[in-house]
Amino acid sequence: MGRELNIEELELIDAFLLKKLNKEQQLIFDQKMQDPIFKEEVTFKQNTLKAFEAKEDISLKNQLREFEKNIKDIPPNREMLHTKNRIKYILAIIIFTILTLLSYLIYSHYINPSQTQKDYFAEYYTPYDNVVQPSVRNHTPTDKIEEAFLFYDQAKYLEAEFIFEKFLEGDTVNAQTLFYTAMCELSQGKINEAEVHLQNSLTFSSFKPHSLWYLALIEIKNKNNQSGIDLLEELLKNENPPFKKKAIQLLEELKKKN
């Protein structure tokens, strides 16, 4: 029996159908498409949307026209038959109305989504730059941590995460490995795992403000806007915090929405 897609993978597919993938999400999506189960779900949803777009309930419209024609042809003295056809006609209108509404809801959600359904995470999220060991062109890494950051700079987040996680064991845990492991996970849509590592990195002062920013984005993504606001306000209490301009802008938007 095949595995079930997790919530992050389903949200990634929705973002693809909504044409709202950012560059990092597109890279993750392309990688996920190598998974037959993920690809099958994408194909299924695409075909469903195409069917709703193309069909446009033609058969129902033709049936309504036929009902109208039958009613016009009914003799005046056949009241019972006339009544039955009237009932059929009314039922057909009800069915047609329901399917039209359903088609509209699917169209508005997947094909032409409302701008009011704003995805703050997609708008504000970008992986934090490698400020620990910036890669040098044509340089071969001399140790594993340098190799991990090289993969990170190349947006090969799965490979980088695999190496970073080796440094999360025992006495090798530090702020940079926790934080950049979380960055790799966020960039792959592993929201829950990233949240745990970001929470742990709060115990280190060096990346605490950075972690607050990404934790705020996660809370907002999870529709916990007030928690997101609290984290942003905590971030802005720092002197010259990272993401200051973005944090102020996002905070203003959330407070207006609330």
Total of helices: 13
- CATH architecture term of the largest domain: Alpha Horseshoe
Say which CATH homologous superfamily of the largest domain is assigned.
Tetratricopeptide repeat domain
**Strand composition percent:** under 5%
Major sheet: none
Briefly, what CATH class of the largest domain?
Mainly Alpha
Task: Write a structural description.
The chain has helices at 7-17, 23-32, 36-55, 58-73, 79-111, 120-124, 144-153, 157-166, 175-187, 191-201, 208-221, 225-236, 244-257. It contains 13 helices and no strands. By secondary structure, the chain is an all-alpha fold. Mean pLDDT is 81; it is low at 112-117. The protein folds into two domains: 7-111; 120-257, Serine Threonine Protein Phosphatase 5, Tetratricopeptide repeat. It is globular. Helix 10 (191-201) runs antiparallel to helix 11 (208-221).
Summarize the structure.
The chain is mainly alpha-helical.
List keywords for this structure.
Serine Threonine Protein Phosphatase 5, Tetratricopeptide repeat, 2 domains
SSE blueprint:
Layout: H1 7-17, H2 23-32, H3 36-55, H4 58-73, H5 79-111, H6 120-124, H7 144-153, H8 157-166, H9 175-187, H10 191-201, H11 208-221, H12 225-236, H13 244-257
